[in-house]
Specification:
With 252 residues, this protein is an alpha+beta fold. It folds into two domains: 3-75, Arc Repressor Mutant, subunit A (Orthogonal Bundle), CATH 1.10.10.10; 102-251, Endonuclease Chain A (Endonuclease, Chain A, 2-Layer Sandwich), CATH 3.30.870.10. The chain is 44% helix and 23% strand. It is built from nine helices and eleven strands. It has helices at 3-8, 13-25, 30-37, 41-53, 75-99, 112-126, 147-158, 170-173, 228-243; strands spanning 28-29, 57-62, 65-70, 106-111, 130-135, 162-166, 183-187, 196-201, 204-209, 221-226, 249-251. An eight-stranded mixed sheet has the order 4-10-9-8-5-6-7-11, with helices on both faces. A three-stranded antiparallel sheet has the order 1-3-2.
């Protein structure tokens, strides 16, 4: 099992190791648990205490010996929901603080997969049609396989449409991207393929580099500029190209 998933839910590396061991070992003593998990005995006590507090383990004493067992892993989903509920409770206040800051003519750099997710959340926040120039289908990147379906369902609910001008290679190398709903698309001729892409939505212009069909860069970087004048100019470029690339294909 990939223990990083457990760590992303808030478990320490030792807690993740011990919980995995408990799932496979059943009821076990502290001494046996230290051996099987390869965690030092004094660290096992601390980790067990935290797992019990999180509702992921239970303790019992038999003839003066402490035994520990795992709680049903469905509890992990409860932890996720509890964290989501806590964030939701303060979200109105956070959003109000965010709205107080002027976002006119500003620039930002998003880095890594989490930064890419921020860019996707910007699309939902702006809630307008997205225009893609030199699209690569890099949304199919393996690192987004859990996040993207949820994002796309929300996009459909909000009625956000896509207009793609794909690189020629996408047609054969990543054709599954063409199944996106509420999407119309065309293709560049082969000689206009590149390793960059530009997305325009609302007053946002987002530039990517080092991307290829179906893949983001190893360490994704995207440059976002928030400017009404700049985004209007890029949309004009998009429309110029769109009108000259023949008939569009659509998916409702």
């Amino acid at each position: 099992m990939d223990l990083k998933v457990l760590e992303e839910l808030g478990l320490s590396p030792n807690e993740a190791k011990i919980y995995e061991t408990l799932l496979s070992a059943g009821k076990v003593s502290i001494n046996a648990l230290a051996v099987e998990s390869n965690v030092h005995r004094r660290n096992v006590y601390d980790s067990i205490d935290k797992l019990v507090k999180k509702g992921l383990a239970s303790e019992e004493f038999i003839k003066g010996v402490k035994y520990v067992r795992a709680v049903n892993p469905a509890r992990l989903l409860d932890i996720v929901r509890e964290k989501e509920a806590k964030v939701s409770s303060v979200m109105p206040e956070l959003e109000e603080m965010f709205r107080r800051i002027s976002r006119k003519d500003e620039a930002a750099i998003y880095r890594g997969i989490e930064g890419f997710k921020n860019y996707l959340n910007d699309i939902l926040e702006v809630n307008e049609t997205v225009h893609f120039i030199g699209a690569k289908a890099f949304w199919l990147d393996e690192r987004l396989k859990y996040f993207l379906p949820k994002f796309d369902r929300q996009r459909i609910r909000q009625g956000i449409c896509f207009r793609h001008i794909y690189d020629h290679e996408v047609r054969t190398m990543s054709p599954e991207i063409l199944a996106l709903r509420m999407n119309e698309y065309k293709f560049f001729p082969p000689e206009y393929s590149s390793s960059m892409a530009i997305d325009i939505f609302g007053d946002h212009v987002v530039t990517f580099y080092g991307v290829s069909p179906g893949h983001l860069a190893a360490e994704p970087v995207q440059f976002t500029v928030v400017s009404e004048k700049l985004s209007d100019g890029y949309r004009k470029y998009f429309n110029f190209m769109w009108e000259r690339l023949g008939r569009a294909q659509r998916r409702k």
